Amino acid sequence: MLPPAQQRLEDFRQQDRVQAGSLIISVFGDAVLPRGSRIWLGSLIELLEPLGLNERLVRTSVFRLVKEEWLRTEPSGRRTDYLLTPSGQRRFEEASRHIYASSAPLWDRRWRLIVTVGELGPKEREGLRRALFWQGFGVLGGDCFVHPSADLTAAFDALHAEGLSGILGRLKPLLAADAQFGTAANDVDMVNGAWNLDHLAGVYAGFVERYQPVLDQLRTDANNEIDDQSAFLLRILLIHDYRRLLLRDPELPDVLLPSDWPGQKARLLCKELYRRLLAPSERHLDAHFQLASGQTPPASRLIHERFREDDPLAELA
């Protein structure tokens, strides 16, 4: 039987279908952005090959991300670097404030609303619903999308990046104090109508079930021994899974959540496991991360501030 860390990697490799583009986005946000937001394509291929992503799949996925304006190219001799576009970098930086936070954001008791004020065709409406779902918005009726803390400007920027700029003129952003919805009980009713919290709780529980054995393995190993490559691969999968989970999570305030909400446990788990994987994974990047010029840029010191608090690593109950 494989140790939990190796089992997690093997489970990923055995998937029938891998969404390589989404995984590459996670790699850029977590590992490439702190090293100057660019990487040689050959280096990216080498880093991802141990996860079972072959060269053709990586190339095809990267070309698609260029077409979708996440990335751009910059030749250097006979090689090519891939860089985050300015809009791609802004989207990553906005996401990073949520992904690497040590705790959930405080609620200012105002709801963010996006209301449709013009007619939308069925395809437009479904595209809007899907795009806002991945930003954590819930739906009230069919014409109002709600979120407790989203940056509405960033939300509209993301809709533009998703190719929905043609409908932005038919959307109206609003701020509403929670009192405008009535009592706290009415807020809870609204939350239950706008989001499927049971499903989201199940996704969080699945995340904990997947990564708790890995954390337990690292905790019980007195020397914290895991090879550098495995640490990097696990770090990428951890952040990839957590990023996709947070994208659909509105990060509701505690007062509006069930008392046994698993989101905080997942956050603490991700925080501790990431901190334990950080040093060996950075050694792997120092050895294998290259630009088209052959240089290896150092990581920004800010990477060591991720999930950082004044207290030592939080132990889970």
UniProtKB/TrEMBL annotation:
Gene3D superfamilies given in the database record: 1.20.58.1460, Winged helix-like DNA-binding domain superfamily/Winged helix DNA-binding domain (1.10.10.10)
Residue span(s) of domain Transcriptional repressor PaaX-like N-terminal: 20-86
InterPro entries named among the record's database cross-references: PaaX-like_central, PaaX-like_N, PaaX_C, PaaX_trns_reg, WH-like_DNA-bd_sf, WH_DNA-bd_sf
Classification via SUPFAM superfamilies: Winged helix' DNA-binding domain (SSF46785)
Pfam families in the record: PaaX (PF07848), PaaX_C (PF08223), PaaX_M (PF20803)
Species annotation: Zoogloea oryzae
Entry-linked NCBIfam families: PaaX_trns_reg
The name this protein goes by in its record: Phenylacetic acid degradation operon negative regulatory protein
Residue span, Transcriptional repressor PaaX-like C-terminal domain: 195-286
Residue ranges constituting the Transcriptional repressor PaaX-like central Cas2-like domain according to the UniProt record: 107-154
Top-level taxon: Bacteria
